[in-house]
Design the sequence.
């Protein structure tokens, strides 16, 4: 049997997904035995022109991580789609926009103003901004266009499978690779390497009655070890998050779930789902007291939509 031809690409993301692939540890040797890696810019010296020269659908599977923020990201998404039989949105940025997607709360102009003029450490008296083309003695330099909005991979090209997580946990990455290598893939459009319940359904912490008078940031209190974090007033995105990670943060890390596996099946808007869960535990019927309790949530957009803003119903809204 000929080896599976795979590619890995990194668009608008932090790079953690690339490291997550290496987290499968010695199993990477099994991958190397079963697959030929045709393109992986972070690890091997391939050029875009190498991919452009390939026949269409030459690559069997492409793991594409990162959101689509620039014209370069978009070009590569279209190119990898054209050259790959199976395109996988790998990790939260490709699936839902993730942290880069929070930039959709702001316009392109306000982001550029902030970065190139307004931060306390910026020294830019002439208001210089990046240009798409700049002439220098050696010729013309070009930069990719910085788009007005962040998109997911599926909002840009047709995607075959979705592997969620920030980053996807190692055993689920391995499960996805194994399914590909053995030809045991589910129907097109499926989420691979995740469950179909919520993080709460897999959590070991004890749940009783959720009624709270105050929301705490995680560092403000020392939580009880065994008790549900939400019942202690710590915002945990478990009720609004797809299962499958093994509750690594909540049970192994003793931290609240941040929601990186995205919404569970049937939930369109992860932030609205979490908001509804938070609203249901506030222990008051007095509007002023309710206002005070929820008013203590710092950065509600960041808490509720840390991963899923681009894919959410709120996704087209903008504050500045
Ligand atoms: S809210 Fe968080 S801590 Fe509580 S059961 Fe759900 S995942 Fe566990
Ligand atoms: S517990 Fe939540 S934030 Fe942590 S890995 Fe799982 S889904 Fe992501």
Sequence:
């Amino acid at each position: 049997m000929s080896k599976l031809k795979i590619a890995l690409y990194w668009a608008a993301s932090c790079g953690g997904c690339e490291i997550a692939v290496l987290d499968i540890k010695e199993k990477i040797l099994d991958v190397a035995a079963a697959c030929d890696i045709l393109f992986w810019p972070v690890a091997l010296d391939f050029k875009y022109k190498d991919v452009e020269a390939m026949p269409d659908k030459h690559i069997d599977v492409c793991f594409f991580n990162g959101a689509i923020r620039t014209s370069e990201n978009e070009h590569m998404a279209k190119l990898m789609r054209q050259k790959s039989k199976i395109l996988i949105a790998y990790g939260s940025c490709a699936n839902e926009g993730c942290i880069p997607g929070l930039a959709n709360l702001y316009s392109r102009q306000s982001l550029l103003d902030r970065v190139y003029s307004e931060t306390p450490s910026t020294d830019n008296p002439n208001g210089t901004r990046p240009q798409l083309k700049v002439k220098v003695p050696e010729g013309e330099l070009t930069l990719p266009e910085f788009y007005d909005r962040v998109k997911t991979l599926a909002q840009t090209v047709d995607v075959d499978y979705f592997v969620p997580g920030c980053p996807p946990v190692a055993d689920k990455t391995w499960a996805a690779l194994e399914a590909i290598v053995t030809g045991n893939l589910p129907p097109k459009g499926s989420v691979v390497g995740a469950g179909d319940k919520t993080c709460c359904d897999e959590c070991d912490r004890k749940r009783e009655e959720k009624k709270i008078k105050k929301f705490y940031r995680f560092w403000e209190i020392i939580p009880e070890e065994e008790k549900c974090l939400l019942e202690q007033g710590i915002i945990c995105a478990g009720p609004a998050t797809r299962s499958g990670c093994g509750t690594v943060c909540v049970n192994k890390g003793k931290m609240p779930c941040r929601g990186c596996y995205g919404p569970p099946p049937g939930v369109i808007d992860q932030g609205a789902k979490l908001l509804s869960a938070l609203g249901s535990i506030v222990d008051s019927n007095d509007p002023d007291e309710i206002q005070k309790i929820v008013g203590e949530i710092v950065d509600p957009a960041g808490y509720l939509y840390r991963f899923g803003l681009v894919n959410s119903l709120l996704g087209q809204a903008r504050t500045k």
Summary: DSSP finds 13 helices and nine strands in the chain. The chain has a mean pLDDT of 92. The pocket of iron/sulfur cluster (ligand 2) is lined by residues 199, 241, 245, 247-250, 257-261 (CB under 6 Å). Residues 71-83 form the longest helix (13 residues).
